[in-house]
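Hi F.,

I've been meaning to write this up properly since the lab meeting, where we talked about keeping a consistent format for the predictions we share between groups. The idea is simple: the sequence comes first, exactly as it goes in, then the structure tokens exactly as they come out, then a line or two of notes. No screenshots and no reformatting. I'm using this chain as the first example so we have something concrete to point to.
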Amino acid sequence: MQQFHKKTDITFKNSFEQTQFIDWRTQPRSYKLYPNFFRRYNINEYEELKFIKNFGKITTTKKYGKEEVSLRANPSAGGLYPCEIYIQIRGIKGFLSGIYHYEPLNNNLTLIHELSNDGLEYYFDTDSKKFIFLISNVYFRSSWKYENRANRYLLLDTGHQLASIFTSLKAENIKFEFEFNFDKKNLNKEFGFDSQEFFQCAILIDNEKDTKPKQLREPLISVAPSDYFIKNKFLEEFIQKLENEKFEEQIKASIFEELKMKNIQNSIDKRRSIRGFKKESISKEEFDEITKDIFSIASKINIDLYFINNNIKSMKQGIYKNVTLIQEGDFKAIGTKLAFNQRLGGDSCFTLFFTANEKSNYIISYIFSAFLAHIINLKCANLNIGCTGIGAYFDEESKKILNTTNNILYLQAIGK
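Output, unedited:
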């Protein structure tokens, strides 16, 4: 997958060569709707299912001129929301066992397949599960704006969406497993995605039954995920490669058990991506609270964290690798420059750089960089500290400044 990363680097040269004009009137629809004749169930009416609303519910709306934009529990690059969630549910009293599509705008579950002796477990080669949560990507929603570099944003959005599900389950103390190894190719076909949409990953929750469901007895109805669609050859090659990707090392949910988060529901409801900082400082204690467990977890999943300290009290300004100062100095101007000349990179109290070497699994590293960034975002919300992810940055220049050969995967600016 490394070749796709290299081909989408932003350099000083190609940033000036880009001539794409964004006509916001042509933005594709950012949510999928099944036809009205499908049965729908409101999550709020079922106690055992209420936690699902935290996966992507509307937390606030904003107006930009005459346009009203709905902001969800999870952030998305450019507010394009390329992720869709499908949920298989078994064994909930008073609720039909089946495969559902989650509608975040209305907090509805749409029944798209009633289960018999079949189920999604067949494509995971596993026993019967109480819940299976599947995250898919609708690539055109992102490529409409970001063109080929959308492959990166799809992975980042998936990481944030995965973390939204994780925190919802953690708030309910529900045990689960991450799953990246499953028959994506055939499952994409069964759902009638027709290359417009594709599965990335899943979360499984056991129901302690040892039965093995059979293959889905019929393909699901094919429904367009956007109001229109333009093919992108580069991204479709990326998807084909992803369908055949094998993950030798699975990320164990137990790695994240050390994460201690206060007031999870409050943080979910308050989380926002900030657009600017007042350049006020944060304390060393606040920094420690925000990053608690993050560095140790990152190292366990082969992610190297760097950060530029611009304005943390009682800490020397400079560039750090993990928590070790490697170059002292004022790097505010450089932080702005690296973040694609966005002031957020220099006005922050600190800016994190998520990186990974070429020997690590590219997909896992990218998704879990955004996963950890999402946890940081929620911690910041609880402390009333601003936070935002930055997916546009100068790749090679960032590597030079950090003195690393690692791929730069994501930036995150934190401050007041």
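Notes:
Residues 24-246 form a domain with the NADH Oxidase fold (CATH 3.40.109.10).
The first helix runs from residue 2 to 6.

If this format works for you, I'll send the rest the same way.

G.
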